[in-house]
Amino acid sequence: MKYKIHHKTVYRYTEPVRRSVHELRLVPRTGPLQSVQDWTLTAPGNLSEARDGFGNIVHNFTLSGPAQTISITATGEVEVMISPLDEAESPGHHGFHDLPDAGESRVSPLYFAAATPLTQAPAALRAFAAPFLAAGHDVPALLALADGIADRVRYSANTTHVGTSAADAFALGSGVCQDQAQVMVAACRAFGIPARYVSGYFYDPAATSMASHAWADVCLDAASALWCSIDVTHRCLTDGRHVRLAVGRDYASAAPIRGILEGGTGETMEVEIAITPIPPMAPVPAAD
């Protein structure tokens, strides 16, 4: 599948922002599951680009003057590819080796085995996950765990916020994709299984409110950086509907937009995301 994506975020303030520093993870990278064929990022400042220790493309900009509106737009084209695992690794399922590019420094998959404040697993969550992971963490076991989490933490908009932890969402019994992904990550890490949070986009013409999405990567073999990618909300392995933006230890380290402001009271935010499939090009007829 190939998509054209338009993602615009506008912040408005009743009192102007006097100064602000912003960190963006709004540029997807080409990797084993997708090819980024065109991408443009615009913001009201000079953008500097770097790679973080997780392999994400990160941009920063600073505003030093008063501003009542801050608008950030990302637009581009991405082709999604799904690669099957070797039959010896996991028969009939999908996975990918996510190794750093030549010359790139990146943390070990084992770094994703440690909990964070947003992904702590209380005793109740550990007890819930134990039966699913008792015999190991192959793909069928992980999918069963994801299905159980989707039942236990029901999808419900506007019941949580970006600072809600996995423990809080699990206790509440509801949340959004961010919460379900963090509960999955927390459950895996509680048993020493490296897992990471993924931010991205999900194409469903019937559910445009879920265009901005989150899911979890779970490491099947740290030595070869072999991962599987699981969408808890849709109870499935990721497929041609998923476009990856960034990975992190939790939402905070993979958030598309983060910022620190001086001033800027009365903030409101408007987000517009459009994902349009690009039809494949018709083959050129052979010459007679």
UniProtKB/TrEMBL annotation:
Residues 169-234 form the Transglutaminase-like domain. It comes from the Bacteria. SMART domains: TGc. It holds the Pfam family Bact_transglu_N. PANTHER family: BLR5614 PROTEIN-RELATED, SLL1049 PROTEIN. This is Transglutaminase family protein.
